[in-house]
Amino acid sequence: QALQPIHTLIINGAECEPYISCDASLIGSHAQQVVQGALIMQYILQAERCIIAIENNMPATLQALDEATSQESIQIVSVPAIYPTGGEKQLIKVLTGKKIPANALPTDHGVVCQNVGTAFAVYQAIIQGIPLTERIITITGKGINHPGNLRVKIGTPIKYLIEQCGGYSQNIQRLIMGGPMMGIALSSDDIAVIKATNCLLGMTNNELAESQSAMPCIRCGDCSTVCPAELLPQQLYWYGRSGQLEQCQDYQLFDCIECGCCDIVCPSHIPLVQSFRSSKGELIIKEKQAAQAQLAKKRYQNQQQRREKEQQDKIAKAAKRQAAIDKIKAAAAKRKTKGV
Predict the structure, then answer these.
(1) Where are the domains of the chain?
(2) Phi and psi of 173, rounded to 5°?
(3) Considering the entire predicted model, what is its pTM?
(4) 8-132 shares its CATH topology with 133-208
(5) CB of 73 within 8 A of CB of 42?
(6) In terms of Cα–Cα distance, which of 107, 109, 126 is closest to 38?
(7) How confident is the model at residue 36 (pLDDT cuts 50, 70, 90)?
(8) pLDDT by residue (tens digit) across 80-131?
(9) CA-CA distance, 37 to 132, in Å (whole number)?
């Protein structure tokens, strides 16, 4: 539950990475439905205002929203098309001037941020009674013969989407789910589309950065300068590398949005994001193990308490039974004495 009432609802229409255009495509074809979905969420949250954020390099999308909101109280705001403005906390800061602190949620400060796809899904669910079974996905990159945006059923194997877009080009080198900065390289296109799949990116050698061996950190500080979360990536890297995971938590490792900016600027070509993901994974496993150990300890303590109680109950029952036997023996002895 939020610490305070929600006063601002933000609908994020800023594409999270380069190459991706699925949100713009959705707004272009269903602007009215997106706006109605946003109004439904605003009503549910009882928010005072609703803002739809659109990048300033999408004039057609802006025009579609302006027409759809002409009779509504929703505010349309154009934001700079600078990566990673589409990040939740980054967008909130751009739109409201508020900086969400580390270890805090936007709802703690009266703000809720949702995607335009969520607004459209809300409209379909509430107004049309249609469940979320499909979404728009961008299939793009020079490794794809005919790039485009497709409306896709969730669970569809990726290979069928590639076929729909004319297949792969001859010089494709890598298939990525997501964008070029935060996406994950796929080993196969037999994988199915999931609810969070927003882009399939086929990249060629010309688009991929040349792979270079990592060199020692020179402490230049470039990674800290570009970090949108205002972290200290070099410190996180050193603590993670040396296994000091608690120190990583102290330096707000989980506030890292894995945008990849530090990777791009690092003159030593250190795979920082890969290191941070590994450290996060180790911390999560460690926390799960600690929770399991605590649960096992609690179960053992409860078992010991139960056994002690059972033993005490057994002793009490034995004492009570012995007392009854002694009473019977005493009564019998008394009767025998009277008979004599």
Answers:
(1) 8-132, 133-208, 230-340
(2) -120, -30
(3) 0.80
(4) no
(5) no
(6) 126
(7) very high
(8) 988 988 889 999 999 999 898 877 899 999 999 999 999 999 999 999 999 9
(9) 14
Instruction: Concatenate the DSSP letters of all residues of 200-245 into one string.
Output: EEEEETTTSPPP----------HHHHH-TT---HHHHHHHHHTT-H
Here the contacts of 183-189 (C-beta below 8 Å, separation 24 or greater) are 183/17, 186/158, 189/157, 189/158, 189/159, 189/162
How far apart (Å, rounded) are the C-alpha atoms in residues 310 and 305?
9
DSSP assignment letter at 269: -
Q: Six-digit token pair at 136? A: 């728009």
Q: What is the dihedral of CA 13, 14, 18, 24, to 10 degrees?
A: 30
- If you write DSSP's letter for every residue of 149-162 in order, what string do you get? EEEEETT-BHHHHH
Query: Is the bond preceding 84 in cis, omega lying within 30 degrees of 0?
Result: yes
- pLDDT, tens digit (0-9, with 9 covering 90-100), for 271-308: 999 999 999 999 999 999 999 999 999 999 999 999 99
DSSP letter assigned to residue 87: S
CA distances from 117 to 26, 181, 248 (A): 8, 21, 34
Mention the CATH class of domain 133-208.
alpha beta
Collapsing DSSP to helix, strand or coil, 118 comes out as helix
Q: What are phi and psi of 10, to 5 degrees?
A: -110, 125
Q: Superfamily assignment of 8-132 in CATH?
A: NADH-ubiquinone oxidoreductase 51kDa subunit (3.40.50.11540)
- The DSSP code for 148 is E
Q: Which residues pair with 150 in a beta bridge?
A: 137
Q: Looking at the DSSP assignment, which residues form a beta bridge with residue 203?
A: 174
DSSP label of 181: T
